[in-house]
C-alpha cells in the first residue's frame, strides 16, 4: 500500500518540479521586463517572485549567473541545424543564425538591455561567453577544418583568422552598427566573398586534368 502511494508521489514529483522551474524562469523574465537591473535580482527576490523556496532554485542552478544564461538562451533564437552538404553551406547556416540573432536583439528591448547589462557584470558575461558564444565558435572552427580537409579551403591560412574573416563582418553589422542593414542574403554574400578568396589554387591530384608528357609535347606533328 505504502509502496503504491510512494509510486504515485514520485509520478507527481516531476510535473511539480518542471512547473517550479518554469515559474522561476518566468520570474526572471518578469523582473527584467519590469526594468529591474540584473544586479538587483537576487536569489531571494527570484524565489519570492516565483513563489518557491531558495532551495528549489539551488537544486537546479548553482548560482544566478547560470540561471540568467539559461533564461537568455530560451529567449534567443535557437541554434541552427547544419545541412552538412559542404563547408560553404554550413558556414552560411551558422552566419545566418548570427544575422537572425542580431535582428532579434534589435527588435527585443529585453534582449538588448540584458546583453548591454551583462557586459558590466564580469562573472555573468564570462558565463554567457563560455556557455553560448564559445560553443558557436568551436562549431565554426570544426566546419572550417572539414572544409580544409575536403579541399574547399586553403590550408596555408591561420584557421582563427579565417573564422574572424567570416564571422567578423556579420558581427560588425549585427552588434556594432545597429542601424546597418541586415538583408536576407548577407550571410551567403559574406561566405561567398571570403571562400572565393580562400579557394585552393590547385585542385586535388585526383581532379586535375592529366598533362601530356614533355616528350609528347615536343614531338613534331607529322
Give an account of the 3D structure.
The protein is built from 10 helices and no strands. The chain has helices spanning 2-33, 43-50, 54-60, 64-75, 87-107, 109-118, 122-149, 159-176, 186-197, 214-218. α1 crosses α4 (64-75), α5 runs antiparallel to α7 (122-149) and α7 packs across α8 (159-176). The termini are far apart.
Structural class category? mainly alpha
Distance between the termini: 105 Å
Whole-number mean pLDDT: 84
User: What's the shape?
Assistant: elongated
Q: H/E order of the elements?
A: HHHHHHHHHH
Rg is 26 Å
Largest sheet: none
Strand content: under 5%
Helix coverage percent of residues?
Answer: 55-70%
Low-confidence stretches: 1-15, 205-222
Number of continuous helical runs: 10
- The beta-strand count equals 0
Structure in a nutshell:
By secondary structure, the chain is mainly α. The protein has helices at 2-33, 43-50, 54-60, 64-75, 87-107, 109-118, 122-149, 159-176, 186-197, 214-218. The longest helix is centred in the N-terminal third of the chain and has 32 residues, at 2-33.
